[in-house]
Design goal:
The complex is a heterodimer. Chain A is α/β, with parallel strands linked by helices. Chain A has one domain: Rossmann fold, CATH 3.40.50. In chain A, 37% of the residues lie in helices and 29% in strands. Chain A is built from 8 helices and 10 strands. In chain A, the strands form 2 sheets. A 6-stranded mixed β-sheet of chain A has the order 6-7-8-3-9-10, sandwiched between helices. A 4-stranded antiparallel β-sheet of chain A has the order 2-1-4-5, with helices on one face. In chain A, helix 3 packs across helix 4. The longest helix of chain A is centred in the C-terminal third of the chain and has 16 residues. Chain B is of the alpha+beta class. Chain B has 2 domains: 184 residues, no CATH class; 180 residues, no CATH class. The chains are: A alpha/beta, B alpha+beta.
């Protein structure tokens, strides 16, 4: 079953008279339960693709169906609803609200969904415990390490039980030992059935994924697992 | 999303930058404070003038001798001897005059007053019994000048509380004792209740004696210094002025109004003028205060715009997590309203404090104006909505992607 169906998706940015094609006629499907890494050099269009998949931006052309809903034709508020219910975001810069405790940060998406306050608290506690932060629920971001902040963000991305997890360079701001812990959490979530799409430019992070889509100049140049594994072995990274 | 949560969150946001929040709210505090203080003081002044109208008698007309015209040479009022007791009696008895209820002929002059040890210089007013009715005199103790006193030209005096304390000491009850007015001995038969005195002279520093006694025994004259008239109704004041005016012109053998050797003033005319002047002044000052309120509102808008810019990433994140436009507008609008509303509350307290202090320093009564308080609350919340809406709208229009990229 396809959870994501992307067909001839294009995004063109126009600044004055200059048009830049960030994404050019991209088509692919992602099945439920997949763990996909999107790789590419900077300027390749992978961030644009990420924004379109995250319903943060609208495509210039093409179709995007997420979990049975045609996303490319929705209004701003409907998009907000899609982001709230169907997408869990994990950002490179964590994007936690600094004044809030870990618990409050995790409760935030449920506030916009109108979940009753008591239930919000219970669900937030459950997911924070799941990512191993049961003893740090009342800590604010400046009392947490990078890895811990990203685990709070993962808990936050999960509380609404989304159709997909969208991670943008999730280990980019984290020390490598903690990065491994984060990736292990993603693997565990994937094993439990979560669909994960992750953007990265690091091979040793991408190797945790089961499928790697490689983008360059706004087009998919490689899509698969095998060729990457060969390159990973060739580069000596384990 | 529940409002209580948004409100408590907004308080949290405001407390992050206390100095900035305080300064932004200060504009509102000053604006609301000055509006409240000025409205309260304006109303207090109006009320005090209103009270005085009641005190002096709203239906009171005063005839003073002396020319009414404003051109040419004009003799000093009181230096003219044209007003007589006959004038007063003819007003009382004339069939043409239908609007006057009571006529009080009066003669007033300052004189030296002594008792055994003390002495004072005070206003002596020769009156008939009707004076008490016309001028709404009430007695503290004893009785007022009677018809018999006036007919019999008796040497009796009714004195004000100020005179009592000047001559006999505060709290004493000197009824039955005697005083010397201009060397002649008078028996005290009554003490008037306090009327208080502001602006129009101390109403308690007065000695009343029978008119006949004052004219013949004390001062040796046969004219009046004024005639007070009580009209039947405050609606007929103008008619009364006209009727009495023509009667006196005829009696004084004068052909037209420009030659009049007397003037008829309505107490209410004077006080109305004073009252409308105060009203205009209050409106003017409130206008200036309203401008400071407007400036305060612009300050709030400015701060809210800065806040929106500063929190672009936060707004982007909230939108990424599912906040709709409405949620973002609500959040920023409530922050602006809380800012102006708390400024409004502080300003209101400040305004009340200021008007309380001023009313204590001056003799203007302290009036807590409910309208002013409603106005303060309404206006400050309104300013929050008015000046908070644009920044809130701008925040909600931010694209989540732009907002997240913002550094």
């Amino acid at each position: 079953m396809n959870i994501i169906h992307v067909s001839r998706l294009s995004k063109i940015y126009t600044t004055g008279t200059v048009s830049t094609i960030a994404l050019n006629d991209v088509s692919f499907d992602i099945k439920k339960g997949e763990f996909v890494a999107i790789m590419g050099p900077s300027g390749s269009g992978k961030s644009t693709l990420m924004h379109l998949l995250g319903a943060l931006d609208a495509p210039t052309r093409g179709d995007y169906v997420l979990d049975g809903e045609e996303v490319s034709k929705l209004t701003d508020d409907q998009l907000a609803d899609i982001r709230n219910r169907k997408i869990g975001f994990v950002f490179q810069a964590f994007n936690l609200l600094p004044r809030y405790s870990a618990l409050q940060n995790v409760m935030l998406p449920m506030m916009y969904a109108g979940v009753p306050k008591i239930e919000r608290r219970e669900r937030a506690k459950k997911f924070l415990t799941m990512v191993g932060l049961a003893d740090r629920m009342d800590h604010t971001s400046n009392q947490l390490s990078g890895g811990q902040m990203q685990r709070v963000a993962i808990a936050r991305s999960l509380v609404m039980n989304p159709s997909i997890l969208l991670a943008d360079e999730p280990t980019g701001n984290i020390a490598s030992a903690q990065a491994v812990e984060i990736m292990e959490i993603f693997q565990k979530l994937n094993k439990e059935g979560h669909t994960i799409i992750m953007i990265t430019h690091e091979l040793d992070i991408a190797k945790y994924a089961k499928r790697i889509i490689h983008i360059k100049d706004g087009k998919i140049i490689k899509d698969g697992k095998g060729y990457m594994q060969r390159r990973i072995r060739a580069s000596g990274v384990q | 999303m529940e409002y209580s949560e948004v409100i408590s969150e907004s308080f949290g946001n405001m407390l992050i930058n206390k100095l900035r929040t305080g300064l932004a709210a200060l504009g509102i505090v000053i604006g609301i404070g000055s509006v409240i203080a000025l409205i309260s003081l304006g109303q207090a002044t109006q009320q005090s003038i209103q009270d005085r109208i009641e005190d002096l008698g709203a239906n009171l007309l005063t005839i003073n001798p002396g020319a009414q015209r404003t051109e040419g040479v004009r003799g000093a009022a009181g230096g003219v001897t044209t007003l007589t007791l006959d004038d007063a009696n003819s007003i009382k008895t004339s069939h043409q005059i239908t609007t006057i209820r009571n006529v009080s002929p009066e003669f007033s002059r300052r004189a030296q007053v002594t008792t055994g040890g003390a002495n004072t210089n005070t206003q002596i007013i020769g009156v008939t019994p009707v004076y008490a009715t016309v001028h709404k005199i009430t007695m503290d103790s004893g009785s007022f000048i009677s018809e018999r006193d006036d007919l019999g030209m008796t040497k009796v005096a009714v004195i004000g509380l100020q005179v009592v304390s000047d001559l006999f000491g505060v709290g004493s009850a000197p009824i039955g004792q005697s005083i010397k007015i201009a060397g002649k001995t008078f028996a005290i038969i009554g003490i008037t209740a306090s009327k208080g005195g502001t602006g129009f002279g101390n109403q308690d520093d007065i000695i009343f004696v029978p008119l006949s006694t004052a004219q013949k025994q004390l001062f040796g004259i046969d004219y009046l210094s004024s005639i007070a008239l009580e009209a039947k109704d405050s609606d007929v004041m103008t008619d009364a002025q006209t009727q009495v005016g023509y009667l006196l012109l005829a009696r004084h053998h004068l052909s037209d109004v420009t030659q009049a050797d007397f003037s008829i003033m309505s107490q209410q005319d004077i006080l109305n003028t004073a009252s409308s002047a105060t009203g205009t002044f209050t409106i003017l000052l409130s206008g200036i205060a309203a401008i400071s309120l407007l400036v305060g509102g612009i300050g709030i808008m400015n701060i809210m715009l800065v806040t929106v810019t500063e929190r672009t990433r936060e707004i982007g994140l909230r939108k990424a997590l599912g906040a709709k436009k409405k949620d973002i507008i609500t959040q920023f609008l409530i922050e602006a309203i809380i800012l102006t509303f708390s400024g409004g509350i502080v300003g209101m307290l400040l305004g009340i404090l200021i008007s309380y202090i001023i009313s204590n320093l001056t003799q203007v009564p302290f009036v807590l104006s409910v309208q002013a308080i409603m106005l303060a609350i309404g206006v400050s919340a309104g300013i929050g909505i008015l000046f908070g809406w644009y920044p809130a709208k701008r925040a909600s229009d931010l694209q989540p992607i732009e907002a997240l990229r913002y550094e």
